[in-house]
Amino acid sequence: MTFDALTRDQIQSLLDEQNAAYRTLQDAGLKLDLTRGKPSPEQLDLSNDLLALPGDDFVDASGIDTRNYGGLTGLLELREIFAPIMQVPVEQVVAGDNASLAMMHDSLVFALFHGTPDSERPWGQEDAVKFICPAPGYDRHFHLLEEYGIEMIPVALHDDGPDLATVRELVKDPEVKGMWLVPTYGNPTGSVVSEAVAAELAAMETAAPDFRILWDNAYAVHHLTEQQTKTADILGLCVASGHPNRPVIFASTSKITFAGSGVCFMGSSADNVAWYLSHLGKRTIGPDKVNQLRHSRWLRSTEGVHALMDRHRAILAPKFEAVAEILRTRLAEHGIASWTEPKGGYFVSLDVPDGTASRVIELAGAAGVAMTPAGAAFPYGDDPRDRNIRIAPSYPSPDELATAIEVLSTCVLIAAAEQSLAQ
Amino acid sequence: MTFDALTRDQIQSLLDEQNAAYRTLQDAGLKLDLTRGKPSPEQLDLSNDLLALPGDDFVDASGIDTRNYGGLTGLLELREIFAPIMQVPVEQVVAGDNASLAMMHDSLVFALFHGTPDSERPWGQEDAVKFICPAPGYDRHFHLLEEYGIEMIPVALHDDGPDLATVRELVKDPEVKGMWLVPTYGNPTGSVVSEAVAAELAAMETAAPDFRILWDNAYAVHHLTEQQTKTADILGLCVASGHPNRPVIFASTSKITFAGSGVCFMGSSADNVAWYLSHLGKRTIGPDKVNQLRHSRWLRSTEGVHALMDRHRAILAPKFEAVAEILRTRLAEHGIASWTEPKGGYFVSLDVPDGTASRVIELAGAAGVAMTPAGAAFPYGDDPRDRNIRIAPSYPSPDELATAIEVLSTCVLIAAAEQSLAQ
Predict the structure, then answer these.
(1) Could you give the CA distance from residue B199 to residue B335 in angstroms, rounded to a whole number?
(2) How many whole angstroms separate alpha carbon B212 and alpha carbon B197?
(3) What is the average pLDDT across B312-341?
(4) Rounded to 5 degrees, what are φ and ψ at A178?
(5) What letter would DSSP give residue A182?
């Protein structure tokens, strides 16, 4: 029965029951972690062949000795594998080291110090720089903006992308210089930006001539079902709309090969790439080309990437199904929570009764289940409704995961009952 | 005979002779490159064992699965190997990816945006930021400062370090926020900052409370003779003088293992390291830990690094000897040029008659020998005397190197004779 249909006494009795269960869980001395979207050891094992590559042959397909200096753009043979995934011509793809976050950071720093090819002045010389932040979103995106004093404007994120009416209004402000988007299987909601929404974002007039969409396609090939969602072709759409420099596209193999030792990619218009490389060339002589060679030898082709992702799916999909099953069993009947059942990506987004997310996370922590802090998926860590909880099912073993979600469900019920009784 | 002792006719006859030799060289269709301090393939081969490491065992000595996310500071077991070389306590050493230049870049960016722990405001909010640049120096250091609008003040570099009287005068200006130094076997002169000079730099009062010495110890263990010069202990000296936050020390394995796939290091005071990590953590979740593990397994210990460097020396020292021998044979008698015979590092610095370096490099280029552009070793690419030429002997084979230095010598003689006759 839903809470609404329960009497105070019935709620009190449910609370007592859950509190008793909670004390038992506390006594179990659990130590579980659902905080970060980390691949599990079993997933990492899939790419263990990398650990002995490239072996004797260190020369890439174009004849470059990968051991020596140079090659700022990254190895062509690796960029060829990922260009189709990024939907960017290979000449406009840069391959870097192990963190696409670093490429995002550097793109922002270069824009702040030097302006983009379309800027009238460096962003840092504007009175203010603002970014549209679809939320819930990726906490590290928001931390980057905060680090550099860029004002964040949260915008509601629907299943098919950010709220367009709000975005259209906001971009009338010339200080609004850009927006974040995780187009496919967004973190944490699993939302997918539709081709129609992407087309509007590509075409819309913006007061800032140097408006940028930072299109972090972190989960481009990270499907959880047979349905392999294709990311909207944001570069093609922007070119067609006469805004070729608008999108900057990022990807990485952090959740394809090794999170701690992958390769990352940035793709954009020819002008933007030339601009990026001109500044990057002051920072480094080139990326780790041996690791890039290692990756191209191991992945072999775009198809090789997809085949590897099928093996990840075989490990991950049952975990996501287990989360959904437990949440359904424990919470559905009470009508107090809703959650996503994403078709890809790394997260389940759980919404609990307004004002109780912090309490749920506090309770879970005290029972040994670490959750991402409440509000983390929102700019400035501020979830205005204090209701969103991000669940990262990938790292724990199936047993640990099941236990953690049971604990979490208990905590959701306790917090909801406490709140209901306090009213 | 020196040029001074020659008649005009004798100089003309020497010029004719060298021009004839030059035309023959031009006809040979050479394509040689002395521009960059790149390790030769033979040197890279020394570390080929890295190419199949770490193999099956991806867990570091402290139990970390290096394949996964995390570990911003870098692997302890690798930092332990390099801490003694950097003369910094291991807790104050950060290990990064394949480019120490990137760590220097990021340190500057963080100071510009946020200020250092000792800054009253971000450097970027000062009316001007100036850096002392001992010259000749490393061109990429200067390009970094130029990239971020930091004013460069060249200071003469002596055999034992920068000219102290000038430095002492300059640091009375609060806008002078720092200085570059390559303390050991400086690029390109091979100069070594003496303990006495380092002590003065550590102790001197500076108007800026946040004055920084960017101590790029790129050639710390890169000896060319039996005499293993020990770098001055800049951190110890600064601590003793009450300026613990003054030095920021950098190193890398670019010229120890693989230039295109090494690891790099940053070390400083505990405060500076905490500051650096706090900002770095917004840019990345961690460095490539598998590559760090690969390096710690292959190098094994600080002694392992020194043993490897002995093998580099066996390849490099004969090349430096050949350069000195040819320059001596071709140029010494004319008294028109001087050059360094460094005890370590990667470069020979050649000074030709004032006003002729550009002409020498132009002539060499037209004969198929690429040299670093004239002035490259000076801030803004401006060698006020147009006399300095940087020679990088490491990459070419011994035969190619000998040919290139013969060509260069011919060009030096031609340019000197032309100038002499034009006066």
Answers:
(1) 36
(2) 16
(3) 97
(4) 180, 180
(5) -
How large is the average pLDDT for residues A168-185? Answer: 98
pLDDT tens-place string over residues A306-326: 999 999 999 999 999 999 999
Q: Could you tell me which residues are beta bridge partners of residue B389? A: B350
Q: Does A105 touch chain B (CB under 8 A)?
A: yes
Cβ-nearest to B68 among A38, A53, A282: A38
**Minimum-distance CB partner of A260 among B149, B258, B290:** B290
Task: Give B414 to chain A, closest Cα distance, Å.
Answer: 33
Identify any residues that bridge with B94 across adjacent strands, giving them in sequence order.
B266
Closest residue by Cα to residue B213 from B247, B257, B242: B247
The Cα–Cα gap between A109 and A101 comes to: 12
Q: Is the predicted pLDDT of residue B137 greater than 70, yes or no? A: yes
The number of beta carbons lying within 10 Å of the beta carbon of residue A340 is 22
3-state DSSP assignment of residue A19: helix
Which conformational region is residue A161 in: left (phi greater than 0), alpha (psi within -120 to 50 degrees), or beta?
A: left
User: What is residue B3's predicted lDDT score, i.e. its pLDDT?
Assistant: 86
Cα A252 from chain centroid (whole Å) = 11
Task: Give me the interface pTM, i.e. the ipTM.
Answer: 0.97
One-letter amino acid at B310 equals: D
What are phi and psi for residue B248, nearest 5 degrees? Answer: -125, 120
Average pLDDT rounded to a whole number, residues A106-112:
98
pLDDT attached to residue A2: 81
pLDDT for B2 equals 81
DSSP A186: -
Residue at A48: amino acid letter = N
- Mean pLDDT to the nearest integer, B94-100: 96
pLDDT of residue B4: 82
Q: At B397, list the tokens.
A: 């084979």
B72/A contact by beta carbon, under 8 A: no
Which residues of chain A neighbour B147 with C-beta distances below 8 Å? 113, 279, 282
Please give the average per-residue pLDDT across A199-223, as a whole number.
Answer: 98
Q: Is the backbone peptide bond immediately before A244 cis, with ω within 30 degrees of 0?
A: no
Q: What is the distance between the alpha carbons of residues A81 and A301, in angstroms, rounded to a whole number?
A: 5
Place of tokens 């010598």: B409
DSSP B176-214: EEEEEE--SS-TTT-----HHHHHHHHH---SSTT-EEE
Tell me: the pLDDT tens digits for B52-65?
999 999 999 999 99
Whether the predicted pLDDT of A343 surpasses 70:
yes
By the 8 A CB rule, do B30 and B367 touch?
yes
Judged by a CB distance cut-off of 8 A, whether residue B297 touches chain A is no
**Is there a contact between B288 and A98 if contact means CB atoms under 8 Å apart?**
yes
Indicate if the pLDDT at residue B1 is higher than 70. no
Which string of b and e fits A81-110 if b means at least 16 CB within 10 Å?
A: bbbebbbbebebbbbbbbbbbbbbbbbbbb
- Reported as type and span, the H/E element at residue A69 is none
Neighbouring residues of A150: CB distance < 8 A, sequence distance ≥ 6 = A108, A129, A130, A131, A177
The Cα–Cα gap between A240 and A234 comes to 10
Q: How many CB pairs under 8 A join A and B?
A: 162
Nearest to B309 by CA among B112, B8, B46: B46
Amino acid occupying residue A105:
H
pLDDT at A1 over 70: no
